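Input (Bcr/CflA family efflux transporter):
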Amino acid sequence: MPKSRGPARPLKPSFPEFVALIALMMGMTAFSIDNLLPAFGAIRADFALPDPNDVQTLVYAYLIGIAVAQIFYGTLSDVVGRRPALLAGLAVYTAGSLLALVTDSFSLLIVARVIQGVGASAGRVMAVAIVRDRFEGREMARIMSLVMMVFLTVPIVAPALGSLILAFGSWHLIFVAMLALGLIVAAWFALRMPETLHPEYRMPFSVRAIGAGMMLTVTNRRAFGYATGMGLMMGALMAYVGSASQVFDTDIYRLGHLFPVVFAVVAAIMAAASFLNASLVRRLGMRRLSHGGVIGFVVAALGMVAAALVYDGRPPLLLFCALVAAAQFLFALTVPNFNSTAMEPLGAVAGTASSFIGFYTTLMAALIGFGVGRAFDGTVLPISLGYAGLGILALLAVLWAEKGKLFHHA
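Output:
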């Protein structure tokens, strides 16, 4: 008789593979925004959009889809597991990408972006929930920093890739790239990532249990305060992303083909800050790093406002880029630690908590980014004022969460 091969070996990716896959799951979000930015001009021309700010809707429609769907995926994953929830989301993302490829209506393109966002939201929620399933405390913060470092390399290459694709054809080819990315993530995850939901944390499908998990998230002062701070900071980032093409490419600095280079430099600085955060968080703790980061962000943002006022809304390119890069560097020292601090007390409801926090912060970021982006007036003053105001509000949210005390050793 042939020898039995025994039970199949469980899937268990190595630590670098785990971080890379989680980062790619989150990176789909940034890729599906940033590689489309160089095509804004072509899309506006194809659809004869009268207002140059209208094309920004493609960013914020996508973000709203991400925000709204996160409530569904997190609670679903606590019931059926992380794997089925993510694979279902990737199927929706694929459907949205296909619709974007065939539509000849700007309104339907916006619908396709919402569908893409609904699908991509599964990656964002599952990434955080899976990390929380396996890690906690400073180790979770370290993992999230490494994930953010990889995640933030996406904007380094995505606009350049978008520009390269445009050199070979129409903006529709960019959606082909998005479709391919979705299929790659689905195959990699299905083949290599095990189910991480702890059996004792699996929830029955119960509206009461789901509501209790959300209520725990909302009523926990630390979780809700840091989530609010994270949403405000992300709002500043989305305002930058939505306005970047007009600021650097077409209306103010008119960089043209150099726009992806400037965008990549700022993203590279954010990635470097995430790497630094991953190495420092074990020694200094999440609170010390994030509190220093948000205070520094406010200072850099006030510098942006001062430069905008002194130079009549159009400061020299190098000065403005330096101030934005400083703010984004500090952003990357802040937001991953805000996220980890918010999730730390919510391990028993990680999927539902990640879902609600993702919904809350992404919706906040989309609406704030849309408001600041629509205020674009041919100068950098609106985005500079947005950065400063949002940074100050984020600092106030942290002060509320910590009952007025900053720089705890945690």
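The chain has one domain: 15-401.
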